[in-house]
Write a structure and sequence with these properties.
With about 120 residues, the chain is an alpha+beta fold. The chain has one domain. The protein has a 5-stranded mixed beta sheet.
């Protein structure tokens, strides 16, 4: 798991040997958020890259919530009537991206995981 909670962590990730497609996604999100006046990207967003071998429990511990449980009614993925709490979910090539906006000021988490990481939702 790669947790990017501030600009320094994002810079290290962007200069590392991570997947080029993921690097481009992270850079694009950083560029999109530059105009919001934060001194550090961590004031606006935390990025989380879930990797094969990471468990839902580890993701929950890092996020502080389970992405598989609805924030409002507590329903869980797989239950009848379950609705996710994320704002956006989309696939970008080999990566899925899920965005959670957590507060009125727009702060949120952006989570990426490989498209092959289907066991995350099982």
């Amino acid at each position: 798991m790669l947790s990017l909670r501030n600009g320094a962590a994002v810079s290290r990730a962007l200069s590392s040997d991570i997947d080029p497609e993921l690097r481009a996604l992270i850079a694009r999100r950083v560029d999109q958020l530059q105009g919001y006046g934060a001194e550090d990207i961590g004031e606006l967003v935390h990025f989380l890259v879930v990797e094969p071998g990471d468990t839902v429990e580890a993701v929950r511990a890092e996020l502080g919530f389970s992405p598989l449980v609805n924030f409002v009614d507590g329903s869980r993925y797989g239950e009848p009537g379950w609705t996710p709490s994320w704002e956006v979910a989309e696939q970008h090539g080999d990566w899925f991206e899920i965005v959670f906006v957590l507060s009125d000021d727009g702060f949120g988490w952006v989570m990426w995981f490989p498209a092959t990481f289907a066991h995350f939702f099982s």
